[in-house]
Write a structure and sequence with these properties.
single chain, about 290 residues, alpha/beta, 6-stranded parallel sheet, about 10% strand
């Protein structure tokens, strides 16, 4: 992936980089558009609460400095495909550390019972790191791997893993499962980005390849079989690419770190990834 990016001309890189930031600016402005919440959180589209109960619920996880509205086009596409779509309020612009945010996410999901069809995390950039951490912390990856090796239902095993703090159900006093089937991540720096070291802001420097969290998550390879990683031909923020060993890696025709999110081909790849994770059998890396 890195070699493919190096073959691009300087002019081509500059054009795609500019187009990427123009798209990002347009999506950031979506936060200012109505409807606005009064005394509470920004409301999600009413249609997102409706969908096929036989399809997994989608939990959107934006990247750093991104509000959930940044992923509105992707959320709309998933909803149109029949999925109920949720966001976790209280994450703000996602500047907290990956581990702290993962813990917040786990607590938020545990407070609401998991749907029978389970949940799939759909994330952009840093959101993919948060999602992977939660899958590791909840034990979903290990449960799926053990069940798949035994020829059983890996998705069901993953979904049965409880929240990391083992929050219990008041009625049964048993750990409440999160229902996580896996993660579909778009343009996630699973191996970090060498460009992160050029910044002084801690929330960006946290993506350095030698960052403790990046290194720790990199060692957790057993979970990669429950991850679908989607990326374009050129990502100016992640020169090393987002391919992840053991995961289902999907290259889409689009370019950029942000603009690829608005591409219908990316939306189709995400929907296919969710369907793949919902399959009861084990996943095979591509």
């Amino acid at each position: 992936m890195a070699q493919a990016q190096e073959r691009l001309s300087v002019l081509q890189r500059a054009r795609w980089w500019l187009a990427d930031y123009l798209y990002a600016g347009w999506r950031q402005a979506a936060f200012l558009r109505p409807p606005w919440g009064v005394g509470g959180h920004r409301p999600t589209p009413a249609a997102w609460r409706r969908g096929d109960v036989d399809l997994p619920e989608i939990v959107l996880l934006p990247g750093v400095y991104e509000h959930w509205t940044f992923l509105r086009p992707l959320g709309d596409a998933l909803n149109e495909a029949g999925h109920r779509v949720r966001v976790v309020h209280g994450l703000g612009t996602n500047r907290r550390a990956v581990v702290a945010t993962s813990e917040r996410l786990g607590r938020a999901l545990s407070r609401r019972g998991a749907p029978d069809a389970g949940r799939v995390l759909v994330a952009h950039s840093k959101g993919g790191l948060i999602g992977k951490h939660l899958l590791v912390a909840s034990g979903a990856a290990n449960a799926a791997a053990v069940e798949a090796a035994a020829g059983g239902d890996a998705a069901e095993a993953a979904a049965s893993a409880p929240a990391p703090d083992e929050r219990t159900d008041a009625a049964t006093d048993a750990p409440r499962p999160l229902g996580l089937l896996g993660l579909v991540a778009v343009c996630t720096p699973f191996h970090g980005s060498r460009l992160a070291g050029l910044f002084l802001v801690p929330s960006i420097r946290a993506f350095r390849p030698d960052d403790e969290t990046i290194v720790s998550l990199g060692r957790e390879e057993s979970i990669n079989g429950r991850i679908v990683s989607i990326f374009g031909r050129f990502d100016p923020h992640i020169p090393g690419g987002s391919a992840l060993e053991g995961a289902t890696n999907v290259l889409v025709p689009g370019n950029g770190h942000f603009r690829v999110l608005g591409d219908p081909k990316t939306h189709a790849a995400v929907i296919d990834g969710v369907r793949l994770l919902s399959d009861p059998g084990p996943l095979s890396p591509r």
